[in-house]
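FAQ: What does a multi-protein file look like?

Like this. Sequence, then tokens, then the next protein.
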Amino acid sequence: MSTFNTPVTHGTLLERITPSAVVPNDPRLRFAQDPLCWIGLPAGTVINAFATGAVVRADGTTNGVPNNAGSPWVAFQLSPIPQLASAAFKAIPGGLSVMLVIVAGSGIATPVADDLLIGGAPFVTAPAGAGSTAFFAFAFQDRICRDPLSAVEAIAMSGACDSNWPQFVSDIAALTHARNVRIVDHRGAPLNAGSVSVSIDGGPAQGVVLSGTDGDTGIAVPAASIARVSFSSASHPIVASVDADNGQFEGAGLTLAAGQRLVQVLDANNWLAPPDAGVAVQRWNPGSFIEPLQEGNTYFARLVQDLRAAKPGGAAEMAGWAFVKGSLPDSTVDWPLVPGDTSTTLLNLINELRGAGVDYSMLVNQFLQFDSPTFDDFPELVPIIFTLYASLMPLQVFAHMQTDPAGYMVGFIAVGALSGILTSSVTLDLIKSLLEYSKPLKDALDAIDPSIATWTPYPAAFGDNPTVIPPPFKILGHTIDDLNHLGVYHQKYAVIRTATGDHIGFLGGIDINSDRVDTTLHRAKHPFHDVQVRITGPAVNDLILSYQERATRHGAPVSIPSPVAIPATGNHLVQIARTYFHAEAGSGTTPFSFAPTGESTPVRTIESAIAQARDFIYIEDQYFTPPRDYLDALVSAASGPARALFITMPFATDQPYGQVRRAEVLAALQTAWGGRLYTGTPLRRYLHESPALTTNLGRMYLANAMSASDGMATFGAYAHLPAPPFWAFIGNELVLVHTIAGPPSGSGSSATQQVEIVRAPGGPGWGAQPVAHPVGTPVLAVQVPSIYVHAKVTIVDDTFLFVGSSNVNRRGLYHDGEMDSFTIPQHLRSDPTNPARILRSRLMAEHMGLSPEMGLALFADPISAIPYFTSRTWYEGSRRQPLSFFGSLPPDVPIGESGSIPAFLLQILIGSLRDAAKPDVWPLLADPTTASDPNPTAKGPDLP
């Protein structure tokens, strides 16, 4: 029995409908709004199901029938069941194929929604009427608008079609223009602007202007002929075959296989911005390869493997914001990069490499820079500085603050003590020992060889920030004279030359830091989400050059001199770009010789890619408090055809005043994008309350029966009751224990306590349907921690991938030293190694509580993934929930497990001065910028 069956009999009058027409805009249809090439059929034609599958039915009064917007219509979508012949479906270029049928008119009785049709069985009969009264087309998982012949030929490649399918292919091939070369854009829609050049069998090139032609060049390719296609109107073209894993960047064009006609094009000039003047890194590096790596454990394991490949006699260089030696729970114990393998502590690993003759060096960011040997500025500045510091490294500063009120007091006392130390006459070395988290490792390496690691203080000064000049610089009216720098090298990258001479690079958001230890399951006590990429090919040269430039600036040794001849290793077009500050005239700062006017390539590339969005924009960011130009780019993109803007971020932005800025930004995006905006935050599956202070803390029972409507509960084992507020499972129902209600009842082990609870029937998603609970029902207090999103990722239309260290704020895009990668697959959507699609699919699965591998199948089609990605509840296993997840809680209940650490510090330590300090702290310390910023005038986080 065949998997695919011919939908119409030979001899049926077929009409090719031109131009292509979109699937009716009905949410019941998976391919709604996608352009398809339709075949019209006359009245009385029986259309058979092309495969066994389920039917979706939709109808409307207008805008459904191809080339007849005023007619009523009924549409049917037949989705095959791929499990019946998974190998056959996998063999089809473009992925799972779906059949759509549109019937003109109304009153069509069958089939009905959710019907199961057997392949070859009657599907729909074209109703009475003149001309074509029914229309069918095939859509594919990659959403590329294939012409009818390309579509049926793709299905034929499954090798599982019935005996009539070859004749069906011939009938389609006999239609007018069936074998013409067609051009589609990066998203897969017909290209209706621009010029191409086509040569057949080596003959003269024929130029074609595509202006409202539905991508049709008018040039036919006989079945045995070979076409060569170039995108002549593009400055830097990518030309890729839709039917094969093949593509060409620049050059004389792409030669297709015999008979192939469908070509996808893109102009890289519209996506990847040119470097700033005086910057030596390449605009792009073809022939490179990007492999995304999710979470710290995955990255660390791969890094260790590649570092050891440098033995013997290779070289390695690493640059980072922080190199933390001690483990998160106990700083006196070194942590291994590979869990359980003590040989992979960074210190042991470096000793191992050096012992094998590996030339190893490090550039270490120096966070603190003071202009005097003591710190005697006004006391109000101390909590502000510490607040900023806590926002940059929250888990290192307050590793034990989750749902533990004692943790807040410890933090308060610690900061108070710190205030006393910093305002006394102590040495800068003592301050560094408290706050420079790379210092223990740096000291240990210095004891081995002082040339291994070099401190690299970032040179940007307050005077380079156009929002705060001219000096003197003040906060709350107090002049700052001991502190003039608060920028950092935020770059996190590594370069390795293996023993065999291969070159490997890594970059992204993951520091060599013990709080980054986590997996996609996020079972860590302090869950941490991040992304890194592994790079091979010519793009690694720009990492080598970047290390050499920074090392030269700071007098550090170089292990791998630039340039290096690195051969192609893949088919990815990769841009390596940095953020560097623009030195202000008169500030006294020496500009970077390698970026004399600063470097803003990352933000310009990201904004260029956003402007090209046709399907979706997917963003993950630690802060998401963007500068005005970035926000304007997203707002402008809302007026285009893009169907979704996804933004995943931490629940609370650990940035002083960041919540103010983010609220304004999200309000502006909501206005522009409406229902197409999908914001969310990931939450860990629950943790049991830690019995740190009381045996069996949080393990209780229900002392009195509860109805499904009760707002009060009585818990037994009073000694096990944590201090509210806390989450609890009463049986299988999750509730929030809000407050204590009255004194305890009874004494000793039989004492009980009545509490007020919050239940959320069908509300924000965290509460199960309330039910009655009998006496003795187990009660378990739990934590529902948020997953700290540290990733810096942007994906556009599964064509463009950004992974790097730049956060979406002014500091990351215009001020601090950053390192980013931008990738476009040279084979575009037909590339099975497309890192944009691979990473997005895996990230969506991870946030849904599924294995990343499942995401490659479930979410390969980003548009059909939207309902699943946005509606799966926390109870069903989804980690990612809307920012309104906690929205039903009483106003005096903390949001999340610890709220925002900077917000806490500002509120407790600055008190009434918090709002008054905002116009000084925001532009000077929290979100500085430089003259590269086209809108550097905002003094506060509010939108200008």
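And here is the next protein:
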Amino acid sequence: MSGPTPPEKPWALSESDAAEALDVSPTHGLDSETVRRRLDHFGPNSLPRALRRPAWQLLLEQFKSMVVLLLMAAAAVSLIFGDWVDTSAILVVVVINGAIGFVTELRAVRSMEALQQMGSVRTTVRRDSAAQQVPADEIVPGDVVLLEGGDMITADLRLLETSLLEVDESALTGESVPVGKQTGPVGVDTPLAERSNMAFKGTGVTRGSAVGIAVATGIRTELGRISSLVESAEAGRTPLEDRLDHLARTLLWVTLAIVTLVGATGILRGREIVFMVETAIALAVAAIPEGLPIVATIALARGMQRMARRNALISRLSAVETLGGTTVICTDKTGTLTENRMTVTRYELETGAVEVPSGAADSNDFGLDGDAPDSASPILCTALEVGVLCSNASLGDDDGSDAVGDPLEVALLVAGRKAGIHRPELLKDLPEVREVAFDPDARLMATVHETAEGYRFAVKGGPEAVLEHCTRIGHSDGNHPLDDEQREQWSGRNKAMAEVGLRVLALAEKTADDADDDAFGDLTFLGLVGLKDPPRSDAHDAVVACQDAGIRVVMVTGDQAMTAWSVARAVGLVDEHDMDVVHGRELTSLDEATDEEREHILGALVLARVSPKQKLDLIALYQEAGEIVAMTGDGVNDAPALKKADIGVAMGRRGTQVAREAADMVLTDDSFSTIVAAVEEGRAIFANIRRFVVYLFSCNLSEILVVGLASVASAPLPILPLQILFLNLVTDVFPALALGTISAGRGVMTEAPRDPEESIVTRHHWLAIGAYGLMITVAVLAGLALALRWFGFDESRAVTVSFLTLAFAQLWHVFTMRDHDSKLIRNAITANPYVWGALALSTALLVLAVYAPGLSTVLGVEDPGFTGWMLVLGLSIVPAIAGQVLKVAGFPRIQAAPPRHRA
């Protein structure tokens, strides 16, 4: 027997009956052997993934484009006129071009599918009487699941315990407002949206905490039933793909007009109709860079892979492009600019300050001259106990290396253990009966514990919030009334701790006869606890890199102003003279704010005590000002802001599952420097796309000009239709693919962000395309003229010279795609092995075209001889040299548009 059958309608059962039906003890959970058996029986807790795009479908898509239709039309025309050689050659080109597109797109698609597998959702469960985190797909029916605010619910649960629990079920029911939950049974026929004692897979905890038993996993969940009805989903197009498609279509219609004119002119001048029709169609194909979508997809996919290696997981391709245009980064403090390695360093009590030793969690040395805290300082002992009790974390091993929970709560447990206070032992004497989950708005949390005399309430939270609810203060000789003057004194001590960069919490307690008494009423203030979270070692350099790149870094934190300012100063965000910190209360009325007030907020670099709702308002304010905003977040309440931001950035380690689901990018190391690296990659990717667009278009323009001018002048065509198709196959795809692999140059992070409305090819770039295309055209026409008139070559040999001149001129043109401020010899182009590989392959194919029997006949080329080769090599290098001269002179600048001027 692998396990009991999960109840069909668990919402109608009582808590105890549900646990009994699944044969599990809520206090102990399942044992490891039972989990193994049930996992074998029920299978993994995962939904069927959308079917991978099959290889045959990718292959078929290569033959659906307008470009391929034009080629097929050319083949049909050749077939009608009985030209079997041209028909066969065109079909071979179609097949080869389709094969290249298929292989490259297959690699891109599989790369993105592999990236989607990199994230792993984990769930906290109670097994073998201990809380532990396990992969979500290992949850089995009967598992006791522990929920906190921000968790994604990974199985259908029958709730056993709840504390202020609210769940966002919009993904399942469409209800936009989070719904409250309770534990009592409901009617058998209760509809899904009203099953208040159930939590469903795929929904998120927005507030509170809970304990529940998994009653359904995988496809048997409510979400699984819905998913089973969906067979496939259509992949969406990215903005970049739309932009490239629009660019190609626009160019296509312009080109069709040109080639129609060229074809008509040739026919009127007596050329064969079939030849001119094929020439016109081949010119149309030459003008449209058919490899452009393929190369763009590869560039984006490789960029995603590079970002993944630099600890940034991108969830959608369009985010890669948007990253490069980011102008403002709104970053959290804890764990992003700091190490999120909380350590309690000091307790401020009415009896004085107590420094906490920096030893390990099991050092059992609290610096009290060997005395126990309860005998040396009863108030300190009480404060330590409150910090240990008011917690959801656990330390695990003695050294705390496998601790589970919020780093701040883990730090309080470590401090308690140093003083010999262990949470499991303390809970034996003071069992927890109720928890009031942390409320981000109130900034308070409480736990209620049973004692021999009644109930003990342990409270922690922000200093201002706790002081507001306290009426007494703990002294060594008992509790004394707390007056306004003392509150001011404690506010001053809080400020002094924050000024030295400490994260400050306040601790309080009370006793009552009723466990349901107001947890935050009539409290006794115990003191403050200061926690040190040192800045990350790489944060300062990352902030400076952003500033050099024209990106404003703004710290947006819920912490108090002085703590935020201290960390901002440490990482180089502000200097010691810039004390301007915007408080969250200044964001509460942005709709009514004056222009001066808005400018003040927009110019601030540190914003403190900012609520999740205010983050939304702040993002809207930046976006109205024309900024491209990246916003970091880790909590469930950050999810709306992450969605609203142009780039939502979630923390992979400490971030909640809800935040990660809402984000465009997940940082697996939670480091701010990773955001900077991702922006750098985003800029490099866009620069590469622009680079190979300029390259492809200038090459294709040269083909149009060469044929068009020769046709109008009644000269022999310098390049034949099949030769054009061959060049597109050789000089378009391989070098362009290589250009898409160029790494970010040193200058990519020294220019201002590009305007988000800027097109891929601006007026400046069109000038560059025209200049490069014209230089190649002049070299090719000069080669044809010299071969015919100076060296006396026959027409076939002369056309071979012009064909090879055009081919090699386009290959050498790769080197003019270097960054404007890079070195002539040693730069990103010459240092890239893929570029040299593409040139070697293309050269080999060109030589093969000349000397391979059959292929040379089909293409209409012959051995140009030593003189012809010297003419080809000499003239083909001229446009590259001229291009480098123009680049040194400052024109044309193709890698970036003029810097965006920002206020």
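Q: Is there any per-entry metadata?
A: Some entries carry free-text notes. For the entry above: Confidence is low (pLDDT under 50) at residues 115-119, 229-236, 367-372, 896-903.
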